[in-house]
């Protein structure tokens, strides 16, 4: 659709952009990225025919740009500049209707039914139809931005050039605008080239990205390849961390502030942080810990500073246990967003805990265990689905700075150790009569201070793995012992 070759040019003698070459296919949403002053707007102006270039060529639909008349070009290309404005006092609808100008012919221009239908449709899609009678001068920045987008779409262009279209828009309109553009690319074959400052929006919506650095192409590729940590750090000269989007396969970039609130964290999590009460075990830290957990509240990955293992009756039944647990936490005076919350039916004074350290590392482990509903995971298909609270809850606090890989390995190590304990303690699955590997509702938490020693791995043979192996074995064995003694006494 658009073929740019050896494009070089600028405003004076020195070129602003040089030797650019890229192709944009029909129906693509193509993003241009780059730091301030890298030449993004200059490229867009050259492609739209506003700014002549010194060397190279721009071919649109197989024809050189300079072979098009202004009106011909206006039928194909619509432009939404960075600071779209209008000095006349027009209504919103009149402003949008100006987009139909290129499609009208003859001296006596007529307003057709088709024109009206298109204008109404694009006003709806951009959410400006409700204030179509208002004077454009009275609108907010974001509202105006949407009106000018509607004007560009009313042109029914084949190519849309946008300079930071989400600039003035609030979160929901950023999403809506990009959703509309994506829809037009898919359904109408619209080709969009858009400048983005927000790398995450670009990563989320664009098919291809072009990264400019000081007027030259750094890379042109799929978002996942362009948005690499080292590349973005070197082009934007700032610290950044790449994370996958939680719901869609798109790269997301996180800024890393030079200083953060966790910086002064020298806390070593140990038993003095914990209270064992009749209805709950609470462990509180001053600084939030990075967590990976399967709790009822705060599960998945996050940052938390209150850890609660709550005792519920064996008959606990609730249609929405997450909501019920959140309400419980609020009642107890905690912010649910600070908490990882688990449940158990066992007596909490039977919990076992251990603070273990070697030369560089230390961990604190807490386990509560009930094995009334023990299960052999390899034969769980023989069980009916039934979530009964006879649970082993394992907390592992690590005083160190763990990688994501170490978090995962830590969970694997702890799970392997738990299964070994159940074997050594001769805990059987009552349905299959084979050794149990856990219970049906076990939960686990790994929480790290993310300060002090760097911990890359936590497999069984690593320094952290060895500590986890010993402490989880000790605590799980002891907690099962306590549980059995109590059950044996008939409590
Ligand atoms: N009309 C102009 N006359 C002279 N120089 C200009 C003109 N417009 C832009 N420049 C210069 O060209 C360079 C590139 O500008 P351009 O607007 O293309 O950058 P950009 O990547 O879009 O930046 P930003 O992210 O800040 O919008 C800048 O150094 C700028 O000062």
UniProtKB/TrEMBL annotation:
Transmembrane segments: none annotated. SUPFAM superfamilies: P-loop containing nucleoside triphosphate hydrolases. Keywords: ATP-binding, Nucleotide-binding, Translocase, Transport. It comes from the Bacteria. Signal peptide: none annotated. It holds the Pfam family ABC_tran. The keyword S-adenosyl-L-methionine does not apply. InterPro entries: AAA+_ATPase (IPR003593), ABC_transporter-like_ATP-bd (IPR003439), ABC_transporter-like_CS (IPR017871), AdoCbi_amidolase (IPR002808), P-loop_NTPase (IPR027417). SMART domains: AAA. Residues 2-239 form the ABC transporter domain. Gene3D superfamilies: P-loop containing nucleotide triphosphate hydrolases (3.40.50.300). This is Adenosylcobinamide amidohydrolase.
């Amino acid at each position: 659709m658009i073929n740019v070759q050896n494009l070089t040019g600028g405003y004076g003698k020195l070129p602003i952009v040089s030797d650019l070459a890229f192709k944009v296919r029909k129906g693509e949403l193509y993003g241009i990225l780059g730091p301030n002053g890298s030449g993004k707007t200059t490229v867009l102006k050259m492609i739209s025919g506003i700014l002549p270039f010194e060397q190279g060529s721009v071919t649109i639909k197989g024809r050189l740009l300079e072979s098009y008349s202004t009106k011909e070009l206006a039928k194909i290309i619509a432009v939404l500049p960075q600071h779209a404005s209008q000095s006349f006092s027009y209504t919103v609808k009149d402003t949008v209707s100006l987009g139909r100008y290129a499609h009208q012919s003859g001296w006596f221009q007529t307003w057709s039914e088709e024109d009206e239908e298109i204008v109404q449709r694009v006003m709806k899609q951009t959410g400006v139809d409700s204030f179509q009678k208002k004077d454009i001068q009275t609108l907010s920045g974001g509202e105006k931005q949407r009106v000018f987008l509607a004007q560009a779409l009313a042109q029914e262009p084949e190519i849309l050039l946008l300079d930071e279209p989400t600039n003035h828009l609030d979160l929901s309109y950023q999403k809506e605008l990009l959703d509309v553009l994506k829809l037009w690319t898919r359904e109408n074959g619209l080709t969009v080239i858009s400048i983005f400052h927000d790398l995450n929006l670009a990563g989320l919506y664009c098919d291809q990205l072009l990264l400019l650095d000081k007027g030259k192409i750094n890379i042109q590729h799929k978002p996942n390849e362009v948005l690499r940590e080292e590349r973005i750090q070197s082009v934007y000269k700032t610290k950044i961390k790449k994370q996958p989007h939680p719901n869609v396969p798109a790269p997301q970039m996180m800024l890393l502030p030079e200083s953060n609130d966790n910086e002064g964290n020298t806390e070593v999590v140990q038993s003095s942080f914990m209270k064992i009460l009749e209805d709950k075990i609470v462990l509180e830290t001053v600084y939030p810990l990075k967590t990976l957990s399967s709790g009822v509240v705060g599960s998945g990955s996050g940052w938390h500073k209150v850890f609660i293992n709550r005792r519920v009756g064996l008959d606990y039944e609730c249609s929405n246990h997450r909501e019920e647990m959140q309400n419980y936490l609020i009642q107890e005076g905690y912010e649910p967003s600070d908490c990882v919350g688990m449940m158990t039916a066992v007596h909490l004074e039977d919990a076992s805990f251990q603070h273990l350290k070697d030369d560089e590392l230390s961990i604190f482990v807490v386990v509560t265990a009930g094995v009334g509903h023990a299960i052999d995971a390899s034969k769980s298909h023989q069980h009916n689905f039934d979530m009964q609270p006879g649970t082993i809850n394992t907390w592992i606090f690590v005083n160190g700075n763990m990688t994501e890989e170490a978090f995962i390995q830590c969970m694997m190590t702890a799970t392997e150790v738990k299964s070994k304990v159940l074997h050594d303690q001769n805990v059987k699955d009552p349905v299959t009569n084979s050794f149990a590997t856990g219970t049906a509702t076990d939960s686990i938490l790994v929480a790290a201070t993310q300060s002090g020693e760097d911990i890359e791995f936590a497999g069984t043979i690593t320094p952290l793995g060895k500590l986890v192996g010993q402490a989880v074995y000790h605590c799980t064995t002891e907690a099962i012992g306590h549980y059995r003694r109590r059950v044996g006494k008939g409590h």
